Amino acid sequence: MKPKLTIVKIGGNVIDDPEMLQTVLKEFGQLDGAKLLVHGGGKIASDISKRLKIPTQMVDGRRVTDATTLEVVTMVYGGLVNKNIIALLQSLGTDAIGLTGADANTITAHKRAVKEVDYGFVGDIDVANINTKKLSFLINGGLVPVFCALTHDKQGQLLNTNADTMASSLAIALSGEYDTELIYCFEKNGVLLDVEDDNSLIRELTYLHFQQLKDDGVIHQGMIPKLDNAFLAKRHNVGVTVKHALNLTSPIGTSLL
Ligand SMILES: Nc1ncnc2c1ncn2[C@@H]1O[C@H](COP(=O)(O)OP(=O)(O)O)[C@@H](O)[C@H]1O
Ligand SMILES: CC(=O)N[C@@H](CCC(=O)OP(=O)(O)O)C(=O)O
C-alpha cells in the first residue's frame, strides 16, 4: 500500500487574512501522514505592484509577467509570503522548508509559447520531470515542503506559475509514490451555486455538472482554471476537494467525483 500524502493549496485571500492563515496552518500541521503545502499570493503581488506603481495585467486568471513583474513576484512569492509562512509553521511546531521549483531542481517549466497573448515569464510545468525522488527525500527526512508559485527552466530563468497548477501538477507527479489527496482552500465554503451565498454549497461535483455550471455562468473567474486543474488531478486518481480554509479538517466542502 502507498503511503498517504495530503497536498494543500492556499490562495491569496487566505494569506492576506492573518487569522485565517494562522488557523489553516495550525490544522495543516496537525494532519496525519506526509504533507505538502502550495501557496499563491496573487492578491499580495498585485497590492505591492500598485504601491510600486507597476501596472498589473491579468488574462484568463494568469498574470502577464514582464521582467519587472517577475522581479516583484520573485520578491513577493519567494521571499515575503513564503518566508512568513515558513516562520508561522515553525512557530506552530511544523518543520517546514520553503521552496521554489528551482530549489533542488524540483520543478522545471518552459516559458509559455506566444499565441494570442504574450504572457512573458510564465512557465508551464513539465509534469513528467517533477523531481519526486528529491521531494520524497525531504518528506522522509521529516520536512514539510512549502512551494511558492515559482518554477525555473534549468537555464537560469525563473518563471511565474499559477499556484493552483503547481498544486495539481505536484499531486499528479507524486501520485505514483503516494496515495495523494489534494485540497484547495480558499475563502468560500467550496463550489457554490451562488457565489454570494455560502449556504449554496455543491457537495459533490462531476465533470459534466462542472461543464454545465460553467456554461450557465454559475462557475466563473478564478474558479474555472482551479476546477480545470482539479479535474485533471482527479483523472490521475488524486482525491480532490475544494473547501474553506477554516474547514480544512471538516467534511464541509465540494468533493470532485
Ligand atoms: N461557483 C463558484 N463558487 C465559488 N467561487 C466562485 C464561483 N465562481 C467563481 N468563483 C470565484 O472564484 C474565486 C476563487 O478563485 P481564485 O481567486 O483563483 O482562488 P484562490 O484565491 O484560491 O487562488 C472565489 O473567490 C470566487 O469569487
Ligand atoms: C502565472 C500566474 O498567474 N501566476 C500567479 C501565481 C500566484 C497565484 O497563483 O496566486 P493565487 O493562488 O493567490 O491566485 C500570479 O502571479 O498571480
Automatic annotation (TrEMBL):
Q: Where is this site: Transition state stabilizer?
A: K9, K226
List residues traversing the bilayer.
none
User: According to its UniProt record, where is this protein mainly located?
Assistant: cytoplasm
Q: Name one GO biological process term.
A: L-arginine biosynthetic process via ornithine
Name the InterPro entries on file. AceGlu_kinase-like_sf, AcgluKinase_fam, ArgB, Asp/Glu/Uridylate_kinase
Superkingdom, natural source: Bacteria
Alphabetized, the UniProt keywords read: Amino-acid biosynthesis, Arginine biosynthesis, ATP-binding, Cytoplasm, Kinase, Nucleotide-binding, Transferase
Which pathway is recorded for this entry?
Amino-acid biosynthesis; L-arginine biosynthesis; N(2)-acetyl-L-ornithine from L-glutamate: step 2/4
Task: Decide whether keyword Magnesium is in the record.
Answer: no
Q: Which reaction does it catalyse?
A: N-acetyl-L-glutamate + ATP = N-acetyl-L-glutamyl 5-phosphate + ADP
Q: Which Gene3D superfamilies match?
A: Acetylglutamate kinase-like
Q: What EC number(s) does the entry state?
A: 2.7.2.8
Record GO terms (molecular function): acetylglutamate kinase activity; ATP binding
Recorded family membership: Belongs to the acetylglutamate kinase family. ArgB subfamily.
Per its database record, what is this protein's job?
A: Catalyzes the ATP-dependent phosphorylation of N-acetyl-L-glutamate.
Q: What is this protein called?
A: Acetylglutamate kinase
- Species per Swiss-Prot/TrEMBL record: Fulvivirga sediminis
- Gene from which this protein is expressed: argB
